[in-house]
Amino acid sequence: MKIHRFIDNFDLSKPELEITGEISKQMALVLKLKVGEKIELSDGTHISAIAYICKIDKKSVLVKIEKINKILKNEKKVHLFCAVLKKENFELVAQKATECGVSKIIPIITERTIKTGINIERLQKIAKEASEQSGRMTVPEISEPIKFLEALETIEGDSVLFDISGSEFTNNYQLKTKNLFIGPEGGWTKKEIELAKQNNFKIATLGPLTLRGETATIIATYLVSNIK
Amino acid sequence: MKIHRFIDNFDLSKPELEITGEISKQMALVLKLKVGEKIELSDGTHISAIAYICKIDKKSVLVKIEKINKILKNEKKVHLFCAVLKKENFELVAQKATECGVSKIIPIITERTIKTGINIERLQKIAKEASEQSGRMTVPEISEPIKFLEALETIEGDSVLFDISGSEFTNNYQLKTKNLFIGPEGGWTKKEIELAKQNNFKIATLGPLTLRGETATIIATYLVSNIK
After folding, report:
1. How many interface pairs between A and B have CB atoms less than 8 angstroms apart?
2. Candidates B96, B135, B209; nearest CB to A134
3. Among candidates B156, B155, B165, B149, which has minimal Cα distance to B108?
4. Tens-digit pLDDT profile for residues A152-164
5. What is the pTM of this model?
6. Could you count the other beta carbons within 10 Å of the beta carbon of residue A174?
């Protein structure tokens, strides 16, 4: 039996909780949850609880906390700097990178980026749903697009830029890497790759086949988030 | 400069080649290629050639072979048995598994498979485009859907079925695995997992987060195709 998960700033320190607003509407009208049914609530940090429903209508849901379920250890913080892609591909990035464990998505504008506008609200909603579906306790933050040059100034920790010219993305690098840089449909310019090298980036490739931006994102995020 | 790739049963053994039909139309009218431009042709096996255009109109394109470019070593043969998913997700599977190097996609019908029909022609077209775009020399074959039980009878080589209950999908297994089994939206039944075990399958998981079928497909195919 699938258990529904919800992420919001719930106060999980008390034995009972009243849930109102959009979430109570969703629980009562969309999911049609019933009294006695179990749900999982996360407070959006690293704490989640199993609770059961005592009373439910669209205005208010009363739940009792049964047990604190997981206090996840700190997930590895993976920051994804991904060039803004075509709408449906960038939405795929938001969904899949979340499933694969990304902490933060920073859309970037590179020399060959064609599309520069994004709908953050919609992307954030996609990321929230993907978090709930995949069993994560937190929702990755999606920031406003910034220029590649600005990104270079703000990063901390080891960075990898993906390009077909790079060397193999070995386990050793997967372990160390914190920041992933994925280029636009037309790829990085030579100047950008040079600049990355000057900033001590590793230039890596994911293999002999040319992967689309969104595919490279999924695989790189998975590798870096799940390496032990 | 991006070079356009085409896969068809071209005869690359001669120094000159006349291309007609749909492809010449695409070259002349859609891509608006010009005399002197270089293209890459693959015969759909493992041979490709760089050629340049000598004459072009929508009915016929005359090219000269400049050099045989790659005779790829045998790619690892990865067979993906993926439960039929919702249309857009299964199309994503066809595209991304191709990019990641799959050899054959066998849609399967499991106990919890909801959708059972697929449009093979459309999926095969998506796979062909993904092959051309990613620089592969071959197009994976997509077969008619078969039942999970039938699949069990036809497989050869080591098989892995992905389920959250499984053990870690280690490098050692990535290396040995030939057949990947991915379940439908609602997951595998206990009976199916039991049956897989009886058939000497490994039951593996891709990590603590619940991945959607199409996401698991992309990652598993990449891992198995690219492990050295």
Report:
1. 65
2. B209
3. B149
4. 998 999 999 999 8
5. 0.81
6. 18
Mean pLDDT of chain B: 91
Give the SS3 label for residue A70: strand
pLDDT score recorded for residue B73 = 58
Q: Are B97 and B120 in the same domain?
A: yes
Same domain, B123 and B188: yes
Q: Does A227 touch chain B (CB under 8 A)?
A: no
Q: What is the pLDDT of residue A137?
A: 80
Q: How far apart are CA B209 and CA B219, in angstroms?
A: 13
* Out of B99, B207, B210, closest to residue A215 by CB: B99
Contact A215 B133 (CB under 8 A): no
**How do residues A3-62 score in pLDDT, each as one tens digit?**
888 888 888 888 899 999 989 998 999 889 999 999 988 887 778 889 999 999 989 999
**Which chain B residues touch A206 with a CB distance below 8 Å?**
222, 226
Residues of chain B contacting residue A225, judged by C-beta atoms under 8 Å apart: 207
Consecutive H or E run containing A226: helix A213-226
Measured distance CA(B67)–CA(B52) in Å, rounded: 10
Separation of alpha carbons B197 and B176, rounded Å:
17
Alpha helices in A64-111 (DSSP H): 87-99
Question: Residues B92, B61: one domain?
Answer: no
Q: Which tokens belong to B179?
A: 């057949």
Query: Which of A46, A47, A48, A45 is CA-nearest to residue A4?
Result: A48
Per the CB < 8 Å rule, is B135 touching A226? no
Is the same domain home to B106 and B181? yes
Angle between the N-to-C axes of helices B120-134 and B87-100, in degrees from 0 to 180, rounded to the nearest 10: 30
Neighbour tally for A96: CB within 10 Å: 28
- State which H helix or E strand residue B196 sits in: helix B190-198
Residue B24 to chain A, least CA–CA distance (Å): 25
- CB B133 to CB A210 under 8 A? yes
Give the pLDDT confidence of B105-157 residue by residue, as tens digits.
999 999 999 888 899 999 999 999 999 889 888 899 999 999 999 999 989 99
- What's the token pair of residue A103? 């902490």
What distance in Å separates residue B153's CA from the closest CA in chain A? Answer: 30
Q: Residue A146 to residues A92, A118, B68: CA-CA distances in angstroms?
A: 20, 11, 43
Spatial contact of A202 and A166, defined as CB atoms under 8 Å apart? yes
Which residues constitute the domain of residue B56?
A: 4-71
Verify whether the Cβ–Cβ distance A100 to B215 is below 8 Å: yes
**Residue A45 has which token pair?**
């940090």
Q: Which of B71, B89, B104 is the last residue of a domain?
A: B71
